[in-house]
Amino acid sequence: MELETAVQMKDITKRFGDVAANNKVNLDLRRGEILSLLGENGSGKTTLMNMLAGIYYPDEGQIFVNGEEVSIRSPKDAYDLGIGMIHQHFKLVDVFTAAENIVLGLEEKGKLDRRAIAAKVKEISDRYGFDIDPNQKVYDMTVSQKQTVEIVKVLYRGADILILDEPTAVLTPQETDKLFAVMRNMKADGKALVIITHKLHEVMDVSDRVAVLRKGEYIGDVATKDTNPQKLTDMMVGRAVTLNIDRPKAEHLTERIEVQHLTVKDKDGINRLTDVSFTAMGGEILGIAGISGSGQKQLLEAIAGLQSAEDGSHILYKDESGAEHELLGKNPLDIARLGVILSFVPEDRLGMGLVGDMDLTDNMLLRSYLTGRGVFADRRGPRKLAATVVDELEVVTPSIATPVRKLSGGNVQKVLVGREIAMNPTVLMSAYAVRGLDINTSYTIYNLMTEQKMKGVAVIYVGEDLDVLLELCDRILVLCGGQVSGIVDGRSATKDQIGLMMTQLQSKEEQA
Amino acid sequence: MSVNEREHKEPLIRISKRTGISAPKAWGIRAAALLLALIVAGLVIFAIVKLSPVKVYITMFKGALGSPRRIWVTVRDTMMMLCVAIGLAPAFKMRFWNIGAEGQVLVGGIATAFCMIHFAALPSPLLFLIMIVASIAAGGIWGIIPGIFKARWGTNETLFTLMMNYVAIQLTSYSVARWENPPGSNSVGIINQTTKAGWFPAVFGQDYMLNVLIVMTLTVLMFVYLKYSKQGYEISVVGDSENTARYAGISVKKVYIRTMALSGAICGIAGFLTVSGASHTISTATAGGRGFTAIIVAWLAKFNTFVMILISFLLIFLEKGAVEIASQYNLNEYASSIITGIILFFILGSEFFINYKVNFRHTHS
To answer: Is the dihedral of CA A322, A324, A327, A328 positive or negative?
Structure first.
C-alpha cells in the first residue's frame, strides 16, 4: 500500500555562521508511518525538525505540506499546518494543571470551559491510550506524565504530524513501552510520526523507516525491516564500527570506597537516601541502576564532598597503604588534599561539571587552577590538555578558545570526561555519562570507562540503559526510592530481574 | 484552508544569532551606531530648537575639550567614573548586582574628609597613608556587609546594596552637620583651604595628574587580577555557576565576601580621589550618581578595564558637552539630556547588532 506523503522537505539548507547544520537535505514524512531520524550528535537532526516546527527558518529549500508549498515562520504557523513537536526539554507551567497547560496559549474566544477541555482531553487520551488526569498539577507529575501532557497538548491543537525529539532519554523501560504503544495507536490513526532517538533497539522496535543524517548531509533512508543496528551505525558514522563492549576482568581488586549506612535528607527533611551501604572496588565498574530520582545524584555527590549526610553515615576511602579516610564532611578540596584523586562526571554537565561561558582551556583549568605559582593561575598545562583532549577524543570545536556552551552535547561531554580522566583518578564516578550522546560517542565513553577499570580505578557508573549496564558493569547496585534493593553480578543478572528490583524493594524482604 | 491564505514567502526580516564576529567588524558597527546617533540627535536638535546641529556639536566638543582647563576637568571626572567602574567590575563579573557603589564612594569620601579635618597637622605622607587606608576600609566595610549577608543567608544583594546607599547618604548628612564650616552654611566648605593639608599635590605641574596615575594603575591591576589571577578565575566560575564552583572546591561564600570587600574598597578609593584629589569637600552629592552610571560602563566594557577607559570618557564627554550647550544656547538641562540619551541608546543598541544578525528576505535566487 502506498502511504500518503504528509510533508516533503526539499533541498533544505540551514547555516549557523559558517557551519552548515543542514546541507540540501531531502526528507519525506508519510501518514501512518513512524520514521526514525538517526544521526550522530551534531548531525543536524534537531535543527531539521526545528524548521518544521517553526523554530528556525531554512536558509534555502522548500517545504511542502500536503503537496502545497508552505512557509513556516513560527510555531503557530506549524500548528496551523498540523505540525507539532515535543521537545527534549518540556515547556510546562509547574503550578498549572495538565488541562490548563494544554490550553495555554490557545486563543479561543469566550470563557474558559474547564469541563469541555477536560472532556476533550479525555477523548484524546482514550483514543490513543494515554494515562492522564487533566486536573493533576504539573509539579506533582513524573517525567513520563509531563511528557504525556506535552503530547496531548500537541494533539489537542489538532496536530497530525508529530515530531518527538529524544522522548525516551528520560523514561524507564516500562514508560518507554507505554509511549511506543501510544505511538503505534497514533500511527494506526493515520498520523505521521517522527522520532529522534539514539537508542538503536528502540529504532528497530518502533519505527517503520529510518532516515540517516551525517554531518548535516542526508545519507538516505531504509525500511526498518531491511536493516539492523550494525548497518544503521555504519550508515550513521560512515565507516564500520564495532558495537561490542569488552568486559575484561581486572587481575586485582582492591577495596577503594566503603559506604556505610549513608542516609541523606533533602532540605524538606525527606530521606533521599536511606541506610545505603556498599563497597566500590578498584578494578571494577560498579553500575548503579534505578529509576531516575532514586537517590543516584545524592549518592555520587555525597562521595564527591558536595552533599552532607545524617549522623551515623560514613564514606571511607581506603588508600594504597590500607589507611582509611573519612570523606563525609569534607569539601572537594579537602578530599583532594588527602591525596584522593576523585573524578566526577556529574549529570548536569554545564551546570556543575563545566563553566559554559569559558573556553576549553579555562574549563581544563577548573581542576588545577590552584596549582599555579603565587597568585596567578597557570594556563599552560590546561591549554596543552585541552589540545590533547580535542585530539584524542575527536572533539568537534572551532578551537580550544571556543566557549563550551557553543559545543554540541556530545562534545561537551567529551570535554568533561576527558578532563576528569586526565586527572589519573583512583575513583571515577559518572552520572548518565552517555545521555543524549550518539552511539559512536557512547562506545568511546564505555571504552574509556573500561580502560580506567583495567588501570585499577574504581569506576562507579550511574546509567539508565539496562542493556548497557548489563554489558559494561561487573556488579550492579540497584536503587529503589533511596534504598539499596540489591547488588547483582553484571555477568549473570537479567534485565527483568533488575527492572523488578528498580520498582520494588525485594531483597530486603527476602533477607528478612 | 488557512494554508492558502498564507503567502509562500519567507518572512521579511529574520533575526539569527551570530556565532562570532571579528573585532574590526564589531567596532565598525559601534562606530556606525555613533555616527547614526549623531545624525538622529542632529535632526532632533534641529526639529526642536532650530539650531544647526553642527554648531551644537562643536559647542559640545568645546565644552568638554575646549581649553586645557576643561580637558583636565574632563580627564579628572573620567578617572572618577573609571575608578568606580573598576570597583564594580569584579562584583558584576561574579553576577553580584552591586548597586551600592554610590554609598561605597560616599563612605570612602567621608573617611577621607574625616582624616583631612582631624589629622591635618600630621606630616603629609603619613596623612595620605591614613586617608588611603581609611577610605579603603570604609568602602570595604560597605561592600562586605551585603557580601556577608548574601553568603550567609542568601539575601538579595540588589536591594541590600541599594539600601546601603541611603544609609551612606544619611551618614554623609550627619557628617556635614558636624563639620559644618562656616557654621550655618549647611556645608563643609573647602577643607583645609589655607593649609591644603591632605590635598593631592600637583604632579608634573598638573593638579589632577595623581588621579590619573592612581586610576591607571588600578586599571592595569584589575585587568590582570580578573584575567590571570586565581582569584579572578574563581570569580568567573562563581559568576557562571555556583554549583560548578562548589564542584571545583571553590568556597562560594568566601569568594562572595572577598570580592565584595574588594569591590567596595576600590569604590572607597574613588571617594578618596573625589574628596582629596578633586573637590576637597564632602556633601551628599559627592558621588553624583557615578555609582549608577558606572554600572553601564562596567557592563558595556564586558569587564575589560581598558575598554572602560573609552566608555567612561565618552560618557563624561557627553555630560560636559551637554552642560555647555545648555548654558550656551539657554536651553535647559533636559534638552541636552535628550542628546545624551539618543547617543547612549544607539551605542547600547549596537550591541544587539553585534550579537545578532538581521537577515532580510533574499533578493538573490
So the answer is: positive
